[in-house]
Amino acid sequence: MKLLSAEIKVFLDLSVREMIERWVSMASGEISGLGLVEPVPGGFLVTEVFLPEQSCGAINTVIEPEAVAKLLIELDRNGYDTSMVRFWFHSHVNMNTFWSDKDLSTIEQLANNDYFVSLVTNKQEEYLARVDIYNPVAIHIDDVPVKLEIPDLNLGSLCEEAFKQKVKENQGILQDLRGDDLFFNRELYDGDYFPDDWEAQLERWEKGGVEG
C-alpha cells in the first residue's frame, strides 16, 4: 500500500546533508550509504551517515552483504546502537529522483521489522524520500518532505545580553506621534510606506484594531 502524507517528514542533520552532497558530487556515477535514524516529533531524524565499501557504476551502486556486516561491526565497536541503522541513501547522478525496481528491492533487503527511511538524490541536490513502516501493519509512505534539522546553538543568553545593552525601545511611540515635537517628517512617510489615512489608522491602532 502506498500513501502520500504532508505531515510526516524526514529531517537531515546538517552534517548528514553536507556529507551526502559532497559524496554525490565526488562520485562520477552512483553512490550509496547507510545511516542512523531516530524518531522525532513530526517524523524521523537522520543523525549520522556512513559510507560502506561498495562498487559503483554509471547506473548502479552495489553494497555487498559482507560490507554491510563489516560496517555494523565497526559501528558496534565504536559504541553505536546498530539497531538504529535504518537509513539508506543513493544517488541517480544527473537523472531524476525516482524509485526503480532495483531500489525497491534494496529497501526490502535492508529494512527490518520496524521502520526504514530511504532517500534518492542527484547532483542537482534534488531529494525524494520515503518511509516504510512494517509494524503493526505495512505502510509505505512516499514523497515525504525532506527538511534540514537546524541545531539549537544556545545563543539565547548571548542575544539577550546584546539586546539589553544595545537596544533602547521607545515605549511612548503613540504619544510621540501625536506630540508637538513629532519625531518624523511627514513627507518622508508618504505613499505606501505611510498612508494618507495615517491618523485614522493610528486611532484604530490605539484601540487595538490594527495588526502589524
CATH class of the largest domain: Alpha Beta
Number of strands: 11
Amino- and carboxy-terminal Cα gap:
46 Å
CATH architecture level-2 label of the largest domain: 3-Layer(aba) Sandwich
Largest sheet: spatial strand order = 1-10-9-8-7-3-4-2-11
Question: What percent of the residues sit in helical stretches (DSSP H or I)?
Answer: 25-40%
Instruction: Give the helix tally.
Output: 6
Topology order in helix (H) and strand (E) letters: EEHEEEEHEHEEEEHHH
How many structural domains are formed by the residues? 2
Question: TL;DR of this structure?
Answer:
Helices cover 29% and strands 28% of the residues.
Write the layout of secondary structure elements.
Elements: E1 2-4, E2 9-13, H1 14-26, E3 32-40, E4 43-50, E5 55-56, E6 61-62, H2 65-77, E7 85-91, H3 101-110, E8 115-121, E9 127-133, E10 139-144, E11 146-149, H4 156-166, H5 173-178, H6 198-206
Parallel strand pairs: 1-10, 2-4, 2-11, 7-8
Antiparallel strand pairs: 3-4, 3-7, 5-6, 8-9, 9-10
Please describe what this structure looks like.
The strands form 2 sheets. This protein has a 9-stranded mixed β-sheet with strand order 1-10-9-8-7-3-4-2-11. With 212 residues, it is of the alpha/beta class. The chain is 29% helix and 28% strand. It contains 6 helices and 11 strands. The relative contact order is 0.14. It folds into 2 domains: 2-149, Cytidine Deaminase, domain 2; 160-206, no CATH class. β9 and β10 (139-144) form a beta hairpin. The model is unreliable at 180-190 (pLDDT under 50).
